[in-house]
Structures are given as C-alpha cells and as structure tokens.
Amino acid sequence: xxxxxxxxxxxxxxxxxxxxxxxxxxxxxxxxxxxxxxxxxxxxxxxxxxxxxxxxxxxxxxxxxxxxxxxxxxxxxxxxxxxxxxxxxxxxxxxxxxxxxxxxxxxxxxxxxxxxxxxxxxxxxxxxxxxxxxxxxxxxxxxxxxxxxxxxxxxxxxxxxxxxxxxxxxxxxxxxxxxxxxxxxxxxxxxxxxxxxxxxxxxxxxxxxxxxxxxxxxxxxxxxxxxxxxxxxxxxxxxxxxxxxxxxxxxxxxxxxxxxxxxxxxxxxxxxxxxxxxxxxxxxxxxxxxxxxxxxxxxxxxxxxxxxxxxxxxxxxxxxxxxxxxxxxxxxxxxxxxxxxxxxxxxxxxxxxxxxxxxxxxxxxxxxxxxxxxxxxxxxxxxxxxxxxxxxxxxxxxxxxxxxxxxxxxxxxxxxxxxxxxxxxxxxxxxxxxxxxxxxxxxxxxxxxxxxxxxxxxxxxxxxxxxxxxxxxxxxxxxxxxxxxxxxxxxxxxxxxxxxxxxxxxxxxxxxxxxxxxxxxxxxxxxxxxxxxxxxxxxxxxxxxxxxxxxxxxxxxxxxxxxxxxxxxxxxxxxxxxxxxxxxxxxxxxxxxxxxxxxxxxxxxxxxxxxxxxxxxxxxxxxxxxxxxxxxx
Length: 633
Ligand code: COA
Ligand code: AMP
What we know:
By secondary structure, the protein is α/β, with parallel strands linked by helices. It contains 18 helices and 32 strands. The strands form ten sheets. It has a seven-stranded mixed β-sheet with strand order 5-4-17-16-18-19-20, sandwiched between helices. It has a five-stranded parallel β-sheet with strand order 7-6-8-11-12, with helices on both faces. Strand 26 (473-482) and strand 27 (488-493) form a beta hairpin. The longest helix has 17 residues, at 87-103. The chain is globular and about 70 Å long. The protein starts with a helix and ends in a 9-residue tail after the last helix. The mean pLDDT is 96. It binds coenzyme A and adenosine monophosphate (AMP). Coenzyme A is lined by residues 141-142, 166, 168, 173, 279-281, 284, 286, 308-310, 332-333, 335-336, 339, 364-365, 501-503, 568-569, 571. This is Propionyl-CoA synthetase.
C-alpha cells in the first residue's frame, strides 16, 4: 500500500478506515460504529465498543503465548540495576497491585494520581489503574509539590501512588516529602497514599493514610479486568497551556488503543516481539504512549531507562543500551542528541558499539534543527525520522510513515501528515494558505482516534482553547508551512508555550510566579533560543516604585521561587530588570512582539501600542544581553 493511497482512504472514508484498523485488537465487544457526536459537538470514536486496555496490553498476550517474552527491560545506570520482566510476571504484578488499589476503594471511573520516577512500578501502577477501569493521572517527577497539588485538586484522586525517591545524576530526590507537602497544599485530600520504598531512601509514613506497597501488595487478592466502554477515559495527562492552570488532556480507552496499535506498524515499522525504546519519562505523553501502551499493545519489549543520555556515565549511554538490548527503533527528543553531541562531538563513542540491530532513530518533542539531524544521520548511518505531535493528540500528526512507505526526507520537515490527520495551514481569518506560506497549523475536524475531545471537567476550555479560533478545525498552537510537495515544516508555537529540553512549559505560569515577588510590578517571561535545550525561559521584570533590590538579588530570588513553585525542569536562570515593557494602550503586555524580537523575526508594531519607542528600547536591551536569536542559531 502506498502512503498516498492509505492517506487518501483515511481522509475520504475515515469511519471505514478506522473500523478496519480496530480489527487488529482483542475487544470484549468490537465496535460497530466508528464515530458518534453528542449534543455539545463532542466527537467520540468507538463509543459502543467494550474493552479493557490492560487486557489488550497484557492478558491477551499471555493467553496467546507471549508469557515468557520480556515485556519490560529496566535499565538504571543511576542505581546500577538491570532487570527483565516478562509478560507473565508483569501481569501478576499488575493484577496484585490492582487488587491493592481495589481494597482501597478504587473502582471504575475513580482517579488515581501517580507521581513516580522511571521505575517499572510506575508502569505497574498505570496498568493496574487501567485494569480496574479507573483513570490514572501521572505527574512528572520533576514537578514541584505545588504543581502536584494543582493536579490533585483538578483530578480529585481517591488514591495517590508514589515512590520514596527519584535518582538524578548527582542527587537523590525524596518524593515523599513533596507528596506530603502537596497533600497539605491541595484542598482535595486523597484517602490513601501508596509508597514504593526504594533502598536508596526509605520514606517515613503517616500511620492512618500511607500504605507500604511492598508489604500490602503481597496480601492483595489479584484483580481481574473490568470492562469499560470505548469512550470511557483511560487517563488524564496535564499539559501546559498559556495560563497558570494546566490542562487535563483526557484520553479515551478505545480510540487510544486503535491509534497506538496502528502507529507501531505504520509509523515505527515495528513487529510484535521486537524491542522498542522511547527514551522519555512516563510523566510525559511520549512515555504514556511509547514506553507503556503502544509497545505492550503490540506485543513488543519496551525499555524503561532511568538515566540520561550523558553523564550516566557518559555520552555513549544510548549506544550501549541499543546494542545491549537489540533495540530496533529508538525515540528521543532532539535535545538528548544535542547533549550527546556536545560531549562527544566527533561521535567517538559510537565506534565502541555495534548498532546493526537499529533500523531507525525517531525524534519529537521540539523542533529538530537541521544541524542535529545531520550530525545524527552522518554519525550513526541510520535514518532519522522527525515527527511532530502533541500531548493533545497522543501520537504523531506528521511523520515519515516508514511502515507504510518510506518517503524522502527534507531536513527541517516532519515529512507528511499521518493517515487520519487533515492538516491545513490557515491565515488569521481561517482561510487556507498556498504552499510555502507560513500560518497557523490546524487540523480539520473530526480529529482521528486518540486525540482529546475534552479537557478534564471543562469542555468549555477545550472548545475555547482549540476549536473556536478556526471553526471546523482544531487549532494546534503551532505555526508553520507546507511546501509544494506536501511536506510540513513546524516552525514553533504561536502562543506562550515553550519547550525546554523537550519539556513543555507555560511562560504564563512562570509569569505568575515572578509577579508574586514583592519587588516586581510587572513582568513577562519569554523563551529564548538555547543551543542545548532548544529554548530556555528568561524573565523581564519591571520593579515597583521604591523597590530596592539589585538585578542579581532579584534573579536569585526568582530562580528559587520558580524552582519551588514549578520545579527544577522549568530552568529559569536569568531575569533582567527593564525600565518598561511594550504594552497596548489598554495595558496589555505585547508578548507576541517580545517573542518575535527574541526569535529575530520580522514584526509589525500594532497600532494599539501605547508608546512605540518602547519597542526599540526593549529590542536593544534584549540584544545587549544576548537574548535575540542569531542567524547561525
Ligand atoms: N525528577 C526530579 N528532578 C528532575 C527530573 C525528575 N524526573 N528530571 C529533571 N529533573 C531536574 C534535573 O535534575 C535538573 O535539576 P538541576 O537544575 O538541579 O540540575 C533540572 O530538573 C533540569 O533537568 P533537565 O532539563 O533534564 O536538565 P539536565 O541538565 O539534567 O539534562 C538533558 C539535560 C538534555 C540531558 C535532558 O534534559 C534530557 O535528556 N532531555 C530529554 C528530555 C526528554 O526525553 N523529553 C521527553 C519528551 S520526548
Ligand atoms: P508536548 O505536548 O509536550 O508533546 O509538546 C508539543 C509541542 O512540542 C508541539 O505543539 C510543538 O510545539 C512541539 N513539537 C513536538 N514535536 C515537534 C516536532 N517534531 N517539530 C517541531 N515541534 C515539535
């Protein structure tokens, strides 16, 4: 089948296309109807199907002869641990933990928040929640107690699952005190906190509330799979929007399973039984989709890597894992390869390993700059596939569909739309633009399976944030263009979301933290280009009259505040004191203009500006301080 034909089928007859793809999964009751829409315009895929995602990922494989195949390889250079868990063992662990959750009152539809490092128990917890037909919400371990509390209040979990600590390169991060603090900050209180105790640090427990996983799971009665409807939610994953409040992206069971199963062959060209490695974290969407669900739904072996691309112990770590476990496809953020290149620019360490098992390197999470693309291709001799996606979609919107038909690549492009995604470039009025003209990237409705159809508890926010700007389309928040051959070039966000080392963060949220400093009258946070992390945030602050604080002192206060309120991953290291910020006459800071200056893009000064001279002034300050992207970058 050619890509063109497959793509055409998916756009011209989406319902039949996806019903056919659904046949590849073991349903309790297969879907009869592909797409339905309810009164508020909410699209649902496979609402009449009955299934259990954990059954599809584990029980089905054990029943069909994969019990002894390795399901998860846990490789942890930070604790010098290597462990193989087969499908049978994983199923037993998941069923026991599901039994433990059930004993704590977790039933179908209940939420469970999971705040864990990259250890197999994080996957066990997710799958156990799915087994009960409950809804998990995993919070990335690099987020602060405050961020965890915000998510607890929104998801209102019955139970919170955590571990005693996470291990970073040079320090152990105690998770339990963060969990305790989050439970104090949050208005909603989980009934129970289940803790996996790691030998690197034993957490102290609260007598009434806390449960020791290792002790109690042994006594639990294993739980069987609970049947859910296709449209029932599998998980909520919070992602950064433009405001301080993260958005709870809701993923349905059936459509998620269908899209991910399809993607393993169509996009990643992986067959059941092969080893797939997504070097991400279960706290991000890449981790949900390609460390946990897709490889297991497809009967593959997935790698859980608790380490970094560098410093654990060196820049050869990725090549070592690929050789050691016979990895067929690896998937990571470009920043990981930039980190490797920085430490091993001549790629000497690659020579120490045999990478013949590896077919393809996939990258996503941020723009893949042509120089990183070329360095990786030349030094590994492997094809590099850049693919574009979002937490909201749960899988790639555009990619080189090598499992359907490998297309020629173009540096800087994530190739062509994946079957199911009708991608269009629109101008500000929603009119489609001709080839090679930059505009907003939008996707014609209905979105294909796996994409969100609401924000947890707030359909209005989903509608306002994604569907109203261009009626009939989903607005991606990214800008870019499609060239004359149909290749998509994603150029960056058109809103206040930034990508720091492949981590999606909101500058609006950081602004809220900066604004709470008692010397700051007004502020703005912008993402500036960074050679390693792609982007890093920088603050621009205007002091209150009479405030007596040096730039250095303010900077150190704000760095500490952002670390405490959001987490170390936010990486806000620099704040400049400025005399004023460009604003409209109604007092709105012109953030888009600041972004354009930082990105060295041409810009039009809006007619509503309060004082046009403020633009040249801020541009000069940003230039003097090296905040403006240079041509070479
Ligand atoms: N738990 C607690 N803290 C964490 C954490 C976690 N899970 N992950 C990161 N942090 C901390 C780090 O320790 C660091 O703290 P520090 O400022 O005290 O050093 C801070 O958050 C920033 O982390 P990071 O951005 O990862 O920087 P780094 O210098 O440690 O590593 C890279 C740089 C490029 C190697 C690393 O960012 C990387 O591997 N990125 C790829 C990201 C990725 O896979 N994204 C998923 C999307 S596909
Ligand atoms: P997240 O929801 O964390 O996966 O972040 C999604 C955002 O990351 C997108 O909206 C893009 O801005 C960016 N992104 C992801 N993949 C790519 C890519 N291949 N090229 C350019 N930007 C990307």
